[in-house]
Design goal:
This protein is α+β, with helices and mostly antiparallel strands. The chain has 6 helices and 5 strands. A hairpin with a 2-residue loop joins β4 and β5. The radius of gyration is 23 Å and the shape is elongated.
């Protein structure tokens, strides 16, 4: 591969990481064409962009970005690597990896970078499946804040009904 082409690929990968800062690194080696096609279809349906990349080019792109937490991912850049970018729910790629990993034995999680945190190793998959998006977390917080107010209103309404019944 010519040096100019490598530089273009590095720039492209770096731009994608800057644009989509939530991504997963997975090993999809050993999947046959039919299973790879099913995986790609599932990724497309879940708003995930799946690309197979060369480890050295991905490493250079991550170094170019200069985010310190990305250094934790460097040791996982061995063997075949596919990068999964997500703009939607941060847990979507983890769910696809878990589902298809159970069916076909691959993909397997190498590492992930989500919400400015690094996750390394297959053992992190359970954690990543349960990560909520920013919007989901805001909804949960609003629900928690509304809960005490609802109880107070309910108690006041019950006291009013009891007071009317006593009269």
């Amino acid at each position: 591969m010519r040096k100019e082409l490598k530089a273009q690929i590095i720039e492209k990968i770096a731009a994608q990481i800057k644009e989509n800062p939530n991504f997963y690194l997975a090993d999809i080696s050993g999947l046959n064409a039919e299973n790879t096609s099913a995986l790609r279809r599932a990724c497309f349906e879940n708003g995930i962009k799946l690309e197979v990349v060369k480890n050295t080019l991905l490493h250079k792109a991550m170094m170019q970005i200069g985010i310190q937490q990305l250094e934790d991912l460097y040791p996982t850049l061995e063997g075949n690597t596919a990068i999964m970018f997500t703009t939607g729910a941060p847990s979507a790629p983890a769910k696809v990896i878990k589902e298809y990993g159970a069916k076909f034995g691959k993909p397997s999680l190498k590492s992930a970078y989500l919400q400015e945190c690094s996750y390394v190793g297959e053992n992190q998959l359970g954690i990543l499946v349960n990560i909520k998006s920013r919007e989901e977390m805001i909804g949960d917080i609003i629900g928690l804040l509304q809960s005490p107010i609802r109880r107070v209103i309910s108690a006041l309404e019950n006291a009013k009904k009891e007071g009317e019944a006593a009269e």
